[in-house]
Design brief:
The complex is a heterodimer of chains A (about 270) and B (about 210). Chain A has about 270 residues and is α/β, with parallel strands linked by helices. Chain A has 3 domains: about 1-70; about 75-150 and about 235-270, 3-Layer(aba) Sandwich (D-Maltodextrin-Binding Protein, domain 2), CATH 3.40.190.10; about 155-230, D-Maltodextrin-Binding Protein, domain 2, CATH 3.40.190. In chain A, about 50% of the residues lie in helices and about 20% in strands. In chain A, the strands form 3 sheets. In chain A, strands 4-1-5-12-6 form a 5-stranded mixed β-sheet, sandwiched between helices. In chain A, strands 9-8-10-7-11 form a 5-stranded mixed β-sheet. A two-stranded antiparallel sheet of chain A has the order 2-3. Chain A is elongated. Chain B has one domain (about 30-205). Chain B is built from 9 helices and no strands. In chain B, helix 6 crosses helix 7 (about 140-150). The longest helix of chain B is centred in the last third of the chain and has 27 residues, at about 180-205. Chain B is globular. Chain B starts with a helix and ends in a 6-residue tail after the last helix. In chain B, about 30% of the residues are buried. The chains are: A alpha/beta (about 270), B mainly alpha (about 210).
């Protein structure tokens, strides 16, 4: 009787392990399944086998899976803070791209981890394999060999003029490609806006999303804006992660088809 | 083709029937207790693994050692190795690893030493040792632990354990001596070999493209 119960428990735990959405719970299920199996062996008068099953199946294998999960179970996102798109809000991450990324991670059964970096460092991180996805910035720049997702949000690159003087841009940003030689580069958009306000530079090349933010917050009062290029915010994917790109594009296409993407854009862009 | 399959099937059935019918004399199998007593053990399994079937066990150990060396050399030749990123320390995991490590190692030693008296033996003891090392690896990070336990020295200890097992077993096979002292020594050496081997292989896989 006890054996039948244990055997049934083994089956139930196997089903539990197979149906978990979070990989960690799946691993715990496999471990518990091994332990129940060891119990079955014990009932079958094979204590030696039971001991080995418990040590290998419950101990060793569970630990190996945990180590593997720690290494590969995460989707590392190298990101730049951009208002509405991806930004920190009371120690939490929010924004349109974050919403998409966290849903995508949920679909892939991978936890999403964001590391905030300057824009110029993202390509190197992606190429080195230290990050899987780049987000929060305009991709690509000229000469950046990155995989790109479908467009998420259309935007425009503009030149804003506030006064006389050289034009600045964010280092590594798409705007840098349109700078005349001898222009100044800044680490991020906040530094660029700061320089613009203090008159260090007379103008800036940036995307409309940032320019709108500057104007709305009263940080920058543009005298004149000229369009430079139509562009779109996309996610960049590490060159080695073609599978991730394929899954991401399929996911984005589905969001577009169901109209959810348009809803999300409305919610986050106002 | 069908005819051949039919002939093979019929032949198999006939062989099975002959085997069951008792036409061929069967070898007399001594009882488990007798085997155990003959080899100085109480646990029949230990007496069989380290006694009657010693050759099988020795070659199993050799296969295990070859696998380990193969994984190591193969991954080194393919130049896949890349250092793992440092792991963020979590106090809970760290404390529980500190608390659990001692009991786990003691239990592994107990399982190895008492393998000839009850359930246990070198293989499960080695697996438990490997688990203890993995627990530490989870708490501290693989690379740090590898440096702390002097991995190259450990690898030589493992080769030493394999050589010692082969020497002890070979001497036993040649001299025909039996007894529980030999069983305890063999179980301990096997535990050492399996435990270190599990760690080494895992470490190689973990630092190779992150795919364990």
């Amino acid at each position: 009787m006890g054996m039948v119960l244990l055997a049934a428990l083994t089956l139930a735990l196997a089903v539990f392990a197979l149906t978990q959405r979070r990989l960690l719970w799946g691993v715990i299920g496999v471990g518990a399944h091994s332990l129940a199996l060891a119990g079955v062996y014990l009932f079958l008068a094979a204590p030696d086998v039971a001991l080995t099953q418990a040590a290998v199946g419950f101990g060793l294998v569970t630990f190996i899976y945990l180590l593997a999960l720690r290494r590969t179970g995460k989707l590392t996102v190298a990101a730049v803070e951009t208002p509405h798109l991806l930004h920190q809000e009371n120690e939490r991450v929010a924004g349109l791209e974050w919403e998409i990324l966290s849903r995508f991670g949920n679909q892939l059964h991978r936890d999403v981890e964001v590391m905030w970096v300057p824009r110029a460092e993202i390509p190197a991180l992606l190429r080195a394999g230290d990050a899987d996805i780049g987000a929060g910035a305009l991709f690509p720049r000229e000469g950046e060999a990155l995989l790109l997702s479908r467009p998420i949000l259309p935007t425009r690159i503009v030149t804003v003029r506030c006064g006389p003087g050289p034009v600045g841009a964010v280092a590594g940003d798409r705007g840098q490609d349109f700078l005349p030689p001898g222009s100044t580069l800044y680490e991020d958009h906040a530094a660029l806006a700061h320089a613009l306000r203090r008159g260090e530079v007379g103008g800036a090349v940036a995307d409309l999303l940032h320019v709108r933010q500057w104007v709305l917050s009263g940080e920058v009062r543009p005298r004149e804006t000229t369009d430079v290029e139509e562009a779109a915010f996309r996610l960049a994917v590490a060159p080695t992660e073609e599978d991730v790109l394929r899954a991401l594009d399929a996911f984005l296409a589905e969001l577009e088809e169901t109209g959810e993407l348009a809803q999300l854009v409305r919610r986050y862009m106002g | 083709m069908k005819a051949l399959a039919a002939v093979a099937l019929v032949g198999l059935m006939v062989l099975l029937a002959l085997g069951v019918s008792g036409v061929f004399p069967r070898p007399a199998v001594p009882s488990g207790e007798d085997i155990a007593a003959e080899w100085g053990a109480k646990n029949v399994v230990a007496a069989i693994i380290l006694g009657v079937r010693l050759w099988d066990t020795l070659f199993e150990i050799l296969v295990y050692a070859m696998t380990m060396v193969g994984v190591k050399l193969g991954l080194r030749l393919l130049r896949w190795e890349r250092p793992l990123p440092p792991v963020a320390e979590t106090p809970l995991l760290r404390r529980s690893a500190d608390l659990l490590l001692g009991p786990i190692v003691v239990f592994a030693l107990y399982v190895a030493v008492s393998g000839h008296l009850g359930p246990g033996g070198g293989f499960p003891a080695g697996a438990i040792l490997g688990t203890a090392l993995l627990l530490l690896a989870l708490a501290k990070g693989v690379e740090r632990l590898s440096a702390e336990i002097h991995e190259p020295t450990l690898e030589w200890a493992e080769y030493g354990a394999i050589a010692a097992v082969l020497a002890v077993a070979g001497a036993l096979l040649l001299l025909g001596r039996r007894g529980s002292a030999y069983l305890i020594a063999a179980n301990l050496l096997i535990a050492l070999e399996v435990g270190i081997g599990a760690w080494v292989v895992l470490h190689r896989f973990a630092s190779s493209r992150g795919e364990v």
